[in-house]
Each structure stands twice: as C-alpha cells, then as structure tokens.
Amino acid sequence: MIGMIDELGYLFEDSGVEVHCPELRQVMSEDELVGLVPEFDGWIIGDDPATARVFRAGMSGRLRAAVKWGIGVDNVDRDAARELGLPLANTPSMFGREVADLAMAYVASLARETVSVHNGVAAGEWP
Hints:
The structure is a single chain. By secondary structure, the chain is mainly alpha-helical. The protein folds into two domains: 2-94, Rossmann fold; 95-127. The protein contains six helices and three strands, in the order ααβαβαβαα. It has a three-stranded parallel sheet with strand order 1-2-3, with helices on one face. It is elongated. The two termini are 40 Å apart.
C-alpha cells in the first residue's frame, strides 16, 4: 500500500488529509507504535502488533479510528478496540484475487516440482 501513496497522493491532498509513512519495514515493534500512533488521527494497520497497549497510547493522543489493511486481523486486539470504543474496520475484499493467484501458483509448482528442478539446474544438474 505504501508504494501506492505517490500514485494516489492527489486524493489525500484534495481531501485535506496529511499522510505519514514511517520508515519502510515489515513490522514495527509495540514500543515504536506506542511512541508513534498517538501523533495521528487514524492508523492503517499492517502486520504490526495492534495491541491494547498501542490502542490506549493512541487514544491518549489523537487516535480516533483504525483500519486493518487486508482481511486478516490476527495481529489486532479487537476486544481491546471495542472496550476502548475505538472504531475499527478491515478491508475484507482486498487481496482475494492475489491470494488465489498465489495459491494456484503454489499448486502448479508443487505438482510440477518446479523448485526442485530449478535447484537442480542451478547446481549444474538436469533433473
């Protein structure tokens, strides 16, 4: 999603929304989030730990809502958000096609032993 901000930035600007993206990493720590989330009105949650501690810290600052990018919410403490009265949503229709494409690619790869053949060729063999 971060890669699309430049492409879609005009939508934020037209709506008067300021966007901040932390240094790109797969996952931020809970301590980092506790220091960062309170600075913003909304949080688009990735794979980061969206814990009760982070939600409380966020709501002690400016946080008013959060949305989980994608369907999976296993890293989100939904009970804590509900108890704190923090509006929380996810985007269940996102990535369905991509996940299906990847699943089919894995099935074909396993059926044709593509990885084994590739590794053999890379080792100078012709399996």
